[in-house]
Structures are given as structure tokens and as C-alpha cells.
Amino acid sequence: MHCLRPLLIIDAVHLKGQYKGTNLVAMGMDGNNHIVPIAFGICKGETGPCWSWWMSVLKECIGDSPNLQFISDRHVAIDLAVQNEFHLAFHDAIQPDAYHKLIQVGPHRWPRAHFPLVHYSYMTSNSVESVNACIVLYRKLPVLKLAETYRAMVQEWYFKRQELADNMTSEIT
């Protein structure tokens, strides 16, 4: 994580076909605002115990940091798992009814300037949704084949980005 923005976007996609379950996904962003897959895990469903297990494994891999921010949808289990595992991190839950709450508090309280951390202009989990769209045709595959598909996709992304980096004339992103 030390080479990426301290930002994790978390989401889940439900598997189809004979092999039911849920694919939990964490994405990061590099300095060029490219999506970087950090972790994925396949579990029974989008439940509290599954999210807790997955977050505990994620924490073992990347650690905890006061600069780390999480963005996810409004699923309560994600929020609880982040709070229980990542004590130093900031979690931003996206709320569909936020419009009404914002109107109630008034525009004078809306500026991003009062947000305590740098958020890199990411306020939604749409980037993870785009990765989920890449695997929509593969959601019916057996678990190991799905994992292999992810590995191949990520390997191709890293290869293309390495080629781009090799041709850069500046070290600044």
C-alpha cells in the first residue's frame, strides 16, 4: 500500500450459476488514478462474519494506518468489519438518502474543505463496479476458474502499466 494512495474501495458481487456465493473485492488507486486490485475473496454471502473474516485477512496483508480510507456502499456488515479491524482508518459509507440529509443540514456545511483527510476526489465505489463489470461473464464459473480469471486480468493490467511506466520520461505521476 505504500506505493498507492491510502484509499481502499470495497464492494461485493454475487456469483451466479451452480456456484453461489459472493466475491468480496478491494481496489486501490495509484498515482495516475488507475484502479489497482488489492484483494478479492469468495465467501458464502455478504454477511457480517464473511466481511469480518475478509477484513481480518486484508488487515494482515496491508496493515492499519490513520491515513487509510475506505469507501463502500451502505452495507452495515462492511462498516462494522472496518470498524472492528481497521481502528485507525476512516470509512466513508455511501448513503442513498444522503441528499435529504444534506438539504436538512444546509449548504454551508457541504464543503469538502472540512473533510479531515485527503480523499483524492473519490467519493463512490464506481471504480470497483467497473472491475465487477469485467467479470460479469465469468460469475458462473467454479471458484478456482474465477480466481484464475482474476489473476490473468490483473497480470495483464500490471504488464500494460509496466510498459507504460518504462516509456515515461518523468518520475512524477
Derived from helix and strand composition plus strand pairing, the structural class reads: alpha/beta
With strands numbered from the N-terminus, the spatial order across the biggest sheet is 3-2-1-4-5
Intertermini distance: 16 Å
Helices, by number, come to 5
Spans where pLDDT lies below 50 across 5 or more residues: none
Which topology does CATH recognise?
Answer: Nucleotidyltransferase, domain 5
Helix-strand topology string: EEEHEHEHHH
The portion of residues forming beta strands comes to 15-25%
Label the overall shape. globular
Mean pLDDT metric: 80
The helicity comes to 25-40%
What is the name of the CATH architecture? 2-Layer Sandwich
> What about the largest sheet?
5 strands, mixed
Structural overview:
The protein is α/β, with parallel strands linked by helices. The chain has one domain (7-166): Nucleotidyltransferase, domain 5 (2-Layer Sandwich), CATH 3.30.420. 38% of the residues lie in helices and 20% in strands. It is built from five helices and five strands; from the N terminus they run E-E-E-H-E-H-E-H-H-H. The protein has helices at residues 48-62, 76-85, 98-105, 126-134, 143-166, and strands spanning 7-15, 21-29, 35-43, 69-72, 90-93. It has a five-stranded mixed sheet, sandwiched between helices. It is globular, with a radius of gyration of 17 Å. The mean pLDDT is 80.
